[in-house]
Amino acid sequence: MVAQNSAVFFLFLFCFLFIFAFSGVEGLGKGEQKLFVFGDSYADTGNNRIALASSWKFPYGITFPGKPAGRFSDGRVSTDFIAGYLGMKTPIPYRWRKQLAGRVKYGLNFAYGGTGVFDTRAPYPNMTTQIDFLQQLINDSVYTKRDLKTSLAYVSASGNDYANYIAMNGSTAGFPAFISSVVIQLTVNLRRIHGLGVKKIAVGSLPPLGCLPANTAPSSFQRCDQTQNALVNLHNQLLLQAVTNLNNQTNSNSFFILDIHGAFSTVLNQTQAHQGPTFENPLQPCCVGVSAAFSCGSVDENGEKKYTLCSNPKSNFFWDSLHPTQEGWRAVFSTPAFQNSLNQLWLN
Questions:
Q1: Per the CB 3.0–4.6 Å rule, which of 62, 74, 93, 298 could disulfide with 46?
Q2: pTM for the complete prediction?
Q3: DSSP state letter for 239
Q4: Who's near 331: CB < 8 A, 6+ residues apart?
Q5: Residues of the signal sequence (predicted)?
Q6: Closest C-alpha among 49, 52, 77 to residue 64
Q7: Tell me: the pLDDT tens digits for 307-330?
Q8: In the predicted model, what is the mean pLDDT of the chain?
């Protein structure tokens, strides 16, 4: 009987923690709109496998919800802030749709950390497959045409295709042609989401990848890699052209760019006043592996920590080698660049 009661208690606790972990930044909404999210770790709120992903390991989630819950940060990520601004509940991760079926009515998050437009990380689904998941839910009548017509989509493509390209090729040689292929496929994906019936689709511009801690570590987190940032600029130029063409081809204002690049640059350079938090050394991450062989959350075979952790994540823009802290995302959200692009999505 004691064992049975314990099992019931832990089942209740498990469900409570996941409901708590998938709550976001609440705001004032417009009716029954839903938010569908596609992409990678900048947007993932818990799709990755618990046994494989660092996002389910301590110290991830220490700020929110207080323990690891699948977000690649100490707390909330871009999806939470966007949903809150739009007055929506943070959509639950696709993989928890059956356990939390009552939350499906608010939309779903199909984003998986580590994924890209193309195949970048097995066994996680690329963006095309993520859209297939939504297509299947429509076929199964989980969502109707009316649901889709009043919904919004957020698409995050934050550089995993390019990191994978460098890992496979060893350099940035041939990058411009590959960038073009990424944007072409991303355009196909955006058009397909629109074809499913979603009338407003926001895609994030690529952040300055050369300023990620993974790329500033050689300079002790003091200087960005300007070669990579120049390639990022090419991606964003092609993306702007693609979104403009999509709106012209569909005779609509359905497609928007969320200016993540401009927002990151504002915070990292600290050259433009904004109402959000500022950081003494914005390139310095809070959680750092003790060597190149280890990353945030790593432990050895004896459970010994192989990373260092800052005393207060709020003091750092970056959480680990790739991802902002919750306070970093709050700063991004607070910039004029990001606010203006969100206002376009909201008001049009």
A1: 93
A2: 0.90
A3: H
A4: 267, 274, 276, 277, 278, 279, 317, 324
A5: 1-27
A6: 77
A7: 999 999 999 999 999 999 999 999
A8: 89
Flag whether pLDDT at 24 surpasses 60: no
Those residues whose C-beta lies under 8 Å from the C-beta of residue 179, and which sit 6 or more positions away, are 162, 231, 234, 235, 238
- Active-site residue list: 41, 320, 323
- The CATH number of 31-279+332-347, from 3.40.630.30, 3.40.190.10, 3.10.20.30, 3.40.50.1110, is 3.40.50.1110
Q: How confident is the model at residue 1 (pLDDT cuts 50, 70, 90)?
A: very low
Residue 223 CB contacts under 8 Å (≥ 6 apart), including other chains:
216, 283
Sequence letter at residue 226: Q
